[in-house]
Design brief:
The complex is a heterodimer of chains A (about 290) and B (about 375). Chain A is mainly alpha-helical and about 290 residues long. Chain A is about 75% helix and about 5% strand. In chain A, strands 1-2 form a two-stranded antiparallel ribbon. With about 375 residues, chain B is α/β, with parallel strands linked by helices. Chain B contains 14 helices and 16 strands. In chain B, the strands form three sheets. In chain B, strands 8-7-9-10-11-15-16 form a seven-stranded mixed β-sheet, with helices on both faces. Chain B has a six-stranded mixed β-sheet with strand order 2-3-1-4-5-6, sandwiched between helices. In chain B, α3 packs parallel to α4. Classes of the chains: A mainly alpha (about 290), B alpha/beta (about 375).
């Protein structure tokens, strides 16, 4: 088949996957920005989001949109509680905070294993059928993901840029001390930032649940990708994460389409290593403090 | 005083009439990834033991023996399997072992059981599980080695397939299976001309499938992939508009694949299956299994039910429960055993150097609305 088919298919696949990475990475970088903690449990919230959507849709018979909203609210609350109960002592403590999140990840994953069992579950697709643009096939189920992710990103943008809470959150990300001095209540912002961060991961999980399968071990790959994205984009930088996520999605997809999978993975990590050597602050990140 | 005497007498009477016991050890996976297979094997052995015990025990050289199953969980790990084997052989003093499930475990415990002349019925798919130097190892289930060639011959001919593409996990298992399948397809007159290897945790198959489809393959092969991954491949291939055949040449996983891919995407998939749903004996067995264990049986279970019965029959024929050299020979000489799977014989002399591999019928099924519908019945030489 011809080049237009391959290229068109690769680009559209890449964009869809890029949006997934974007949701993951923004949450990840937000948590880092606020707490200065690398959240190793981020992938497990993706998994929890997927299970939450799965339970809402298959057991409670909720419509998909309601399931995604319920997932967001539930994980926001869960994230808030975890921040206050577990992470409070590790705010700004990079090393110990990181170890705490590794423990948290294990607890969440094994908890899911005990509750849901190890077998992969499947959720019914949100939409059946395929839209074809010339030779390029666009599965409806993935177009839904695109629409939902874009909607979530718009809401997040409006919240961060044009609301009081969002401004306060951004201020905390930029400089916690100055922000506190200006009267922002940090005690309130830490759990909010953590909650929103992990809830974004959960939304990504909920959106991808009908596209992929649902099992307790699905969190590790998205976590790895979120890492790569924030390294490329600059840790703590939200526009950097957005740019890097889309670039990564498209790069991966195109490389996988035209090269063997193992070679394109090597190429990708080679690229990440070069980035770390020559521009450790990432595409749009500021130099470390 | 009278009372004590009476009790003592009762006790003595008790020991006098107590039956002799045959202990069968089981090294099976009861937790983690291989749990469904391990349970299937253990429960099969238990059901076979129930059969014999319900008749008052196994009659060996005029004495009745009760059969008792002693299970240990190996967690699908070779190290745990070795621990279990040591306990079974040296503490529980068993002479017969069912298991292990995994290839690594089977290879790891072989030296222990062989040295102590303990007979072992293993599921392990590796071709090294059987051999002249492992005289006490038997395998009551079919592996890809036995089933792939006749099955591929039939599919290639019946479905007119010329170009096959396959996605395989990028590790030892995946590479080996890709190589074996490539040979089998070439022999059958088709070509496995698009192979893609990927990391096991990958979930987005779209780019790889795009490439396969662009090469114009008639069929996609799923062998070697874990059930969940295979389901994702099926789902995404159909989403990309792939209309060709989807084939799974080995590893019973249909229900899991249908679960992940959805009923409509899995329709038309051609799979290898050890079980004919129309077989009344197997159906009765499956119902009995469900009634007792409240779980649907895995496809490997009937093979081990038959295998345990063959082993017990061999003890009866040999007239001993302790001399495993004699029991081994009796088991080897078992011919045309009527099991629930059909007529069973031992084979494998050319491949493994020793005829300790079961030869059982198997089937090619088409998946229709989530159920397997038999398309062809196979022996180890051909499918019809």
């Amino acid at each position: 088949m011809d080049f237009t088919f391959l290229m068109g298919q690769a680009l559209t696949n890449g964009l869809v996957i890029g949006l997934l990475y974007l949701l993951m990475a923004i949450g990840f970088t937000l948590v880092f920005g606020v707490m200065r903690v690398v959240n190793f449990a981020h992938g497990e919230f993706y998994m929890l989001g997927a299970f939450s959507a799965y339970v809402c849709v298959t057991r409670l018979q909720l419509p998909f949109l309601a399931a995604v909203l319920a997932t967001f609210v539930l994980t926001l609350i869960l994230g808030w509680i975890i921040e206050v109960v577990v992470m409070k002592g590790f705010r700004g403590d990079e090393l110990n905070g990181m170890i705490a999140t590794i423990g948290l990840a294990m607890i969440l994953q094994n908890g899911a294993l005990m509750v849901f069992g190890p077998d992969p579950q499947s959720m019914p697709a949100v939409a059946e059928g395929v839209v074809s643009l010339g030779p390029v096939m666009l599965p409806m189920s993935r177009l839904y993901v695109v629409a939902f992710s874009l909607a979530v990103l718009v809401v997040l943008y409006v919240f961060l840029m044009h609301s009081k809470g969002g401004r306060a959150l951004r201020a905390v990300v930029q400089d916690i001390e100055i922000a506190s001095a200006q009267g922002i209540r940090a005690q309130f912002m830490y759990p909010l930032g953590f909650g929103i961060g992990v809830a974004l991961a959960a939304i990504a999980g909920a959106l991808m649940a009908p596209v992929f399968s649902v099992s307790p071990s699905i969190g590790s790959t998205p976590l790895l990708k979120a890492f790569i994205v924030v390294i490329l984009g600059g840790l703590g930088s939200i526009p950097g994460a957005a740019l890097a996520a889309l670039l990564l999605g498209v790069f991966e997809s195109v490389a996988n389409t035209f090269m063997s999978s193992s070679f394109s993975d090597m190429l990708l990590f080679g690229f990440v290593i070069l980035m770390l050597i020559f521009r450790p602050s990432g595409l749009l990140g500021k130099a470390g403090r | 005083m009278k009372k004590i005497l009476a009790i003592t007498a009762l006790c003595l009477a008790g020991t006098a009439s107590a039956q002799e016991e045959i202990k069968i050890g089981a090294i099976v996976t009861l937790s983690g990834a291989g749990a469904s297979w391990g349970q299937a094997m253990l429960h099969a052995t238990e059901l076979a033991a129930d059969d014999v015990n319900a008749k008052g025990g196994l009659d060996v050289a005029g004495k009745k023996y009760k059969v008792k199953v002693v299970p240990y969980d190996d967690k699908y790990q070779a190290g745990e399997a070795v621990t279990a084997a040591n306990r079974l052989v040296f503490e529980d003093k068993v002479k017969y072992i069912i298991g292990p499930v995994g290839s690594a475990g089977a290879l790891a415990v072989t030296p222990i059981v062989d040295k102590n002349k303990v007979m072992m019925l293993t599921l392990g798919f590796t071709d090294k599980a059987l051999g002249k130097d492992k005289p006490f190892n038997f395998r009551p289930n079919l592996t890809t080695m036995e089933t792939s060639q006749p099955q591929i011959n039939w599919i290639v001919k019946a479905k007119g397939i010329k170009k096959v593409g396959g996605l395989f996990p990028n590790d030892e298992t995946g590479q080996q299976i890709a190589q074996d399948l490539e040979k089998a397809y070439t022999k059958a007159g088709a070509q496995l001309n698009a192979k893609e290897f990927f990391e096991r945790e990958r979930v987005d198959m779209m780019p790889l499938l795009t490439r396969l489809i662009a090469k114009g393959v008639d069929a996609i092969e799923l062998d070697g992939n874990a059930p969940g991954t295979a389901g994702l491949i099926v789902k995404q291939a159909r989403e990309l508009g792939f209309k060709g055949a989807i084939i799974r040449s080995g590893g019973p996983a249909t229900s899991e694949i249908v679960n992940v891919a959805g009923t409509s995407a899995a329709n038309g998939m051609l799979v290898n299956t050890p079980i004919d749903p129309a077989n009344a004996a197997v159906k009765a067995y499956a119902d009995r299994y469900f009634a007792k264990f409240k779980k649907r049986m895995n496809g490997f279970s009937p093979a081990f039910y038959d295998g345990t019965h063959m082993l017990l029959q061999a003890m009866a024929t040999a007239g001993t429960t302790t001399d495993t050299d004699k029991v081994r020979v009796a088991l080897e000489n078992t011919k045309d055993f009527k099991g629930i799977l059909g007529t069973l014989n031992w084979t494998g002399a050319e491949v493994y150097g020793v005829a300790h591999q079961i030869s059982a019928p198997f089937y090619i099924a088409r998946v229709q609305d989530g159920q397997e519908v038999i398309e062809a019945t196979c022996s180890l030489t051909e499918c019809k």
